[in-house]
Design brief:
Blueprint (H helix, E strand, L loop, with lengths): L5 E4 L3 H12 L2 E5 L5 E6 L5 E6 L17 E5 L3 H10 L3 E8 L5 E6 L5 E6 L6
Parallel strand pairs: 1-4, 5-8
Antiparallel strand pairs: 2-3, 3-4, 6-7, 7-8
Amino acid sequence: MKVEHIAFVVDDPDAVAAWYCEHMGLRLVRQGPPPIKMTFLADSDGTMFEVYAQSTVETPDYANMNPLALHFAYYSEDIQADFERLQAAGATVVLEPSPTEAGDTLAMLRDPWGLAVQLVNRKEKMV
């Protein structure tokens, strides 16, 4: 078996999808019609996630969740440049880029809807 996608409830899947496509390099794979407004997004390697809205499911308060409990982690060749670019696109700072004891560099932001986005540059790539 293989993971196909991970899903997140959001209030405005169209706006979230547009932001992630424009600023995170994702592409739209499929959209579904109401009553469940679902949008599937994928990166260049085919890693896919879904953002959707459904009236019977409450959207979590992502902005007040500990970002270590749930975050999207994106590999970045230039964390400082990506960090600044995402701030200009409406992301808010949680943690400035900083090195870890293992030699990796990490940063944490929140997208305009409060979802945590981690930028990662590993000393040794994991995959």
